[in-house]
Every structure is written in structure tokens, then in C-alpha cells.
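Forwarding these from the shared drive since the link keeps breaking.
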Amino acid sequence: MFRRLVLLALVSLLIPFSTFASSDKIEPTGAFTDAAASDSVKKSLEEKGYKITLADGTSLCEIWFRKAIPVATKKDISGAFYTEIVDSAVIAVINFPKNYSDFRGQDVKAGAYTLRYALHPTDGNHMGISPYRDFLLLTPVAVDQNVDATYGFTDLTKMSAKSLGGNHPAAMSLLLAEGAEVNPKLSENEQAHLILTLKVKTSAGSDLPIAFVVNGKVEH
């Protein structure tokens, strides 16, 4: 099920990564207070989040990043940008006020979701498909209650599939962070994908620039 997602990501990422200024808006917002989320999740997040509004005035999402994203020694893994992030670690929580389309164009219902880091495995189903392996998988906060829990790839994708009610995970595509000196920053690439770039705090006390597609899908 993840094979097609990776192929779609490859199509996007093989195109030169040029970004342009976005007319969309990002601004601070208050604390995350969704009643469906556990205290474990709420307490792990920064007190302030970000609200992203599209140029036409549509409210796209609110997002709160984790105070300290779990990291370990960075590994040299082909095709992966963020190998210092612990597999399946919660990176952030995102709330969609309206239904949302993920990177594959799958319909995600309005609501709040954890974003967990996923590095697709190099098993027989995935090896050699793509040199780019970093994604964020969405799971409803009512399902993902323990922020410190870790999951194998199969269990994580099954949990994320509950975002859609089917067998496929809901995903956002991570990209190589560029231009993180402006923090946070919205930009668009040549596929008109809206990209959020910013620095997040890690458990090692360092800043980690990350970037991912917050709006847009790969045409297929």
C-alpha cells in the first residue's frame, strides 16, 4: 500500500526543488486544546502553534510542534533526509477545520491528527523504488493517545489508515529544508505545492530545519 505513495513522492522530488514566495499566510495561534487528545499528547506540544490561511482567505490548518522531537545519532541512509529523528516519533499535531486532501489526494476528514515520522522500509516491497524515504503519517488524536509510544512501520501505517477508514495511510511529504533562515516560512514549488519550512527543537537541544508539503498533491 505504501509503494504507490513512494512512487508519487519520487515523481515530485525528482523535479528540481525550486521554491517561490507564497501569498498564503502563517501566523501564531494559541494552545492545542482538542478534547479528544490525551494529556500525554497535549503536554508534549509547544504552547503556541501556527495557523495557515490560504491566499483566498480559506483556513487550511493549525499546527503545533513538539517541544522536543526525539532524535538519536544521525544515520547515513540513502534517500533519507531526517535520519536523526527516531522512527515513528510524534513531530506535531495538525488540525484541519475542513476536510483535507493529503499528498495522494485522499480525503481526510476535518479534525486533529498526530504527525509521526515514517521511514519506509527497505524490504522486498520497497527497496529500490525511491531514494527518498521520509514522510509524516497522520493518525486521529483520539486513536494516538501515547505520545511516547513507538511503532514498527506496519503497525504505524495500520494506525494511520484509520484517518481514512481504509487500508492506506494518510501522509504528508517531507522535503529537504531550504531557506530555513526565515522561520517559519511558506513557499511554493514548481508543482504549486505549499511548503512549510521551519526550525523545530530536538531532544538534544538543537534546532532542526524541516520542510513538508502542507497543501498540494501529486497528480496521477
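-- next protein --
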Amino acid sequence: MSDAAEQISALIEATVESLGYELIRVTYGGGRKPTLQVMAERPDGTMGVDDCARLSREISLLLDVEDPLPAEYLLEVSSPGVDRPLTRPVDFERWVGFDAKVELSEQIDGRRRFRGKIQSYNDGVIVLSSDEGIFELAFAEVSKAKLILTDELLDAVKKKAPQDQAVGAEG
């Protein structure tokens, strides 16, 4: 996470939680007009268009007052989506049985990228299984992880949250 994203995350997290959402990820970057992307969801994993709009309004007001970013930017508030990023231990616990891509900050046996089914998450260790074997990965070493879009994942998400869409606003 960039310094700006970390700063924004710390700034907005209490507001996001007070509105009944969990902050999933904050990213900031881009070209001439950078994008501040905020991903959030309700504790039950749902996030509808109205939720995104409400959160966008509240975050926009907070950022207008605090003014942590020096230049013009685009604020985008969204749900994590179907092939969501896995940023917290609870994400790995919730999505046991689904396929994921995990990238580590350091190599293990000459590789940093792993792909497989999440078998378990316990005490900071993610267990992935694939045709190549079973891998035990330290959550603390994960630099990036996300679910892989599969029919099984689509079916599970459709049953849980039929409406995942993004809402944007100028910042």
C-alpha cells in the first residue's frame, strides 16, 4: 500500500466502520488525474449501489475537510467484487474452499506466486492446495492475493450478494 493509501485508510477507517461497513482496501494512483479507490462491504459480505453511494458521500465530505491529497483525484467507492482481493485474515477464513492467487513479498523455494484452493487459514498460515502440491504461506508475507473467478465462486456470490457495483465521484 502506498503512503497516500495508508494515510487515507487510517483517516477514513473509523468513518467507514461507524457506518456499518468493513474497509477492505484503499489504493491511490494513476496518471494525470489519480484515482482513490476505496473497497468496502457490510460485515455479511454484501455491498449494494446504495451502500456505495452513501459511503462515497461520507468519505468525500471527510476528505474535503481533511484535504489529505494535494491534487485533484477521482474517488471511486466499490464493493470488492466477485474476484475480490484477499487483504485480511478473515478473507481467507471466509473463502476456504475457493481458488485464489497469492503473491508473497519474499520467495519460497524460488517462487513468489502461488495459485490453488484455499484449504484453511489458522494462526497466520494460509494453506493452498494445487496440482503442484500443498503450500503453507505466512499471511504476514502476502503482498497481494485475490480470489480466482470460477463457476463455483460465481454461484456462491450470486446466492450471497446479487448486486455488486461501483459508484464514483470527483474529489
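The CA atoms of residues 12 and 71 lie 18 Å apart. Residues 162-171 have pLDDT under 50 and may be disordered.

- D.
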